[in-house]
Amino acid sequence: MIVDNFVFSRRNRRPLEQDETVGRRAGMFIALGLFVAPYLLRHKLIPGSAAVWALNPVVLLTVAWLLLYMLGHKYAMSRSFGVVRSVLFAGLVLLAFSTGMSPSFLIACLLPLVLLFVVVPETIFPAFFKGFMRVLNAVMLVIAACAACDVVSGFSVTKAITNFYGSDSLISMSSSGRLVSIMGHSLLTAEVALLYFALNQIASRFMGAKINQILVTLVAAAVVLLTGSRSAMVCLLCMIILAYSNAKNIKYCIVIIVGLLAFYLAGLFDTVIDRIMIGIKSGDMTSSRNVQLDQLVAAGVIRYDWFTGHEFDYSNNLLIIALEYPLLRFAFSYGIAFSVLLAIYLFVLPLVQTLRGLGIVPFGLLALYFVHVNTYSSICSTQDGMLQCVIVAWLFVGVARYSAYLAISRSSEQGD
């Protein structure tokens, strides 16, 4: 074996293949924890409390294993944004405890934020990203195949999944003709389709992956359309325009347009169009979120304080609808300061790093993903929403760091 096939971390010498194997397995297991063992499946199969179900054991154990491997080989950690991020996180922890955040929310909403401190070394990250994408792509193809079966069988797969989970919200989704996958809620399924499109664009542009652009786009579009999510459809359309806006990628547009026309003729647009028409007739395109928010604020039920939270009544359906927007719910439950610090920590810093490291298109893709995340309450529940959002941000930041490393390496080689 030649010298170039070895890596060093503080005089710790070993084959490069060892780092690649660890990275690939870690990426695959984290994706399996998110997409094959989601919250609803754990809730169905594992007895316990809300705190037990809030814990994603596959992801937690995989991250612990990766950290132990990195510590064992004494990798030097990056200090990029370290001070700012540390101060923000310390503030979040202080406010969470001072406002009485429950154990289940500490596990589901606060613990995942620690991931953004973890810097995966350049000898591990490419294989890690590849392993994650391998599972994500496979899961999306399964979801798409189930969606195709739904189209020709009157949503038989959706009904079977709904009956298995037995959730009232899923029953409501299924009865209105919206796609329900193993992920559960239609909006969460749409979110997976968005991150599938965005991350495949990143893989193609920066990680040397060869993807079928047309297949990825049409799979994501089909799944989003069948979920009936208006916000996800708008975000995906903007992602497509952003990704294919240059002359090099314009060649894909004609085929994609033809594919979308075929989807329209097949009736895949029906649910989204019906929901848009309902929104136009009611004068509210937010499924009554804004109406209920205005009414409850006017009635004094919803109020905000900087450093004080209010108990969230989960038996009040109107309150749940009004505070579907995550940052507003966090502000109500844990104070305005908590929500502001979280927005900077989770959204602003990763976007800044993505813009600086990768450019405007990846920045736009991540921003549009964040827009959809902020249209419903996934990241402020005791499920996997926050964990999933953090992992997507973590991957974008990781690609930015890896691209910076490659740029420095090339400049050093040219200097030599």
Report on the structure:
The chain is mostly helical and 416 residues long. Helix content is 70%, strand content 1%. It has a two-stranded antiparallel ribbon. β1 and β2 form a beta hairpin. The longest helix has 31 residues, at 385-415. The mean pLDDT is 86.
Oligomer: single chain
Report mean pLDDT, rounded to a whole number: 86
Q: Helical content, roughly?
A: 55-70%
| Class derived from helix and strand content | mainly alpha
Low-confidence stretches: none
Biggest sheet details: 2 strands, antiparallel
* CA radius of gyration: 22 Å
H/E topology pattern? EEHHHHHHHHHHHHHHHHHHHH
Q: Which word captures the global form?
A: globular
- Physical arrangement of strands within the biggest beta sheet: 1-2
Strand content: under 5%
Number of helices in the DSSP assignment = 20
Number of strands: 2
Question: How far apart are the termini?
Answer: 24 Å
Concise overview:
It is built from 20 helices and two strands. It has about 425 residues and is mainly α.
Strand-helix topology:
Blueprint: E1 6-8, E2 13-15, H1 16-35, H2 39-45, H3 50-54, H4 57-72, H5 82-98, H6 103-110, H7 125-153, H8 156-165, H9 168-175, H10 186-206, H11 213-227, H12 230-243, H13 251-265, H14 270-282, H15 289-298, H16 317-322, H17 326-334, H18 336-358, H19 360-373, H20 385-415
Antiparallel strand pairs: 1-2
Helix pairs in contact: 1-4, 1-7, 5-18, 7-10, 7-11, 8-9, 10-11, 10-12, 10-19, 10-20, 11-12, 11-13, 12-19, 17-18, 18-19, 18-20, 19-20
